[in-house]
Design goal:
Number of helices: 3
Mean pLDDT: 83
Number of domains: 2
Strand content: over 45%
Helix content: 10-25%
Low-confidence stretches: 188-208
Number of strands: 24
Order of helices and strands: HEEEEEEEEEEEEEEEEEEEEEHHEEE
Largest sheet: 15 strands, antiparallel
Structural class: alpha+beta
Strand order of the largest sheet: 2-3-6-7-10-11-14-15-18-19-20-21-22-23-24
């Protein structure tokens, strides 16, 4: 009987100690959340109307009500945001997004709906908690334009970050079965070279244009001006530079690829040297002309060069060295087209 009482006392003591650990951890967790949400941090990227914490005894389940996240000129809002972590592994969190949320870009609000949206973030278990890796997954995402019309939808979208150096992360983005609904209302140059665009006739003009992209993939690096750790919740988010290494698009019989280095940040126009690969290039060039990406003179130049440079073993495949500088895309000294101003 004495042994039973001893075992019972040990069990009660263990439960009490674990409960005390959870209570202390929960108090420290909420104190950190309240500091991040405080109005005393005007540059902090996170705001919320309220918060709650549950999950005793093994988890910390944080819910933010009416949250707002601001990062790099983009503002995200939703009805809630949930952050789940095991109490014995708080440096690994799962973030769950609402099915409907909103993005504000350049003064316009875009809608996003998903069947499921969540992220996994793993930080180095140290005091500053620098991010080691992150994965974001959207199932059946749909994007609505500011007028509430369907802009695009996909089967799945995934993005991943992996730390290479303290200020450099490897980035990979993959979207499968992307349907470009906006193409049905995309303007095109009017016949005869008029500057006034005429609306597309989806039944005729888009018969050959690939509205569904089976795969879109982007690989590159993200370079930050300061570490991506817990201090980003208390101060301004870090500024970043995106270095695009490769982008691939596959749509039916069409293949498009960019490889090389393209540097994108908010301080200067994109710049870099890339290899552009197209297949089948005659149809792709014609489509780019039809929707106004290529000017007629640029199309004629590219068409002549392509016939000389196309792969002899696969004449439908074309690879071109291009240069992006001062807001212009060039093939040698020839300006193909200008990028839209920021």
């Amino acid at each position: 009987m004495r042994r039973v009482w001893i075992l019972l006392a040990l069990a009660v003591g263990a439960v009490a100690l674990w409960g005390g650990y959870w209570a202390l951890g929960a108090r420290a967790y909420l104190a950190a959340v309240d500091r991040a949400l405080s109005d005393q941090n005007p540059q902090a990227p996170v705001r919320a109307a309220g918060r709650s914490l549950a999950g005793f005894p093994n988890r910390f389940d944080l819910t933010l009500f009416s949250p707002r996240l601001a990062f790099g000129g983009i503002e995200w809002t939703g009805a809630f945001l949930q952050v789940f972590a095991l109490s014995y592994r708080p440096h690994h969190v799962i973030v769950v997004f609402p099915r409907e949320h909103f993005l504000r870009l350049n003064g316009q609000t875009w809608g996003v709906s998903t069947a499921d949206a969540r992220a996994s973030l793993v930080a180095e278990p140290s005091l500053r908690l620098p991010l080691e890796r992150a994965v974001l997954v959207f199932r059946a995402p749909k994007v609505l334009d500011p007028a509430g019309r369907l802009f695009a939808e996909a089967t799945n979208a995934r993005a991943g970050l992996r730390r290479l150096e303290p200020l450099r992360y490897d980035l990979a983005v993959e979207i499968s079965t992307l349907e470009l609904a906006f193409l049905s209302v995309l303007p095109r140059p009017a016949a005869g070279g008029s500057a006034n665009p005429a609306p597309l006739d989806p039944a005729a003009d888009l018969a050959a244009w690939p509205r569904i992209l089976e795969l879109v993939r982007l690989e590159g690096d993200v370079v930050l001006d300061r570490p991506l750790d817990r201090t980003v919740l208390l101060e301004r988010p870090p500024e970043f530079t995106l270095v695009v290494k490769e982008m691939r698009v596959h749509a039916g019989a069409f293949d498009f690829a960019l490889s090389g280095t393209l540097v994108v940040d908010g301080k200067a126009p994109p710049a870099g040297t890339l290899t552009l690969s197209l297949s089948p290039w005659p149809e792709i060039l014609r489509l780019l002309l039809d929707v106004g990406v290529l000017r007629p003179d640029g199309f004629r130049i590219l068409d002549r060069l392509a016939r000389e440079l196309a792969d002899r073993d696969a004449p439908e495949r074309l690879s071109l060295p291009i240069r992006v500088e001062a807001g212009r895309v060039k093939l040698g000294p020839i300006v193909l087209f200008a990028l839209e101003p920021r």
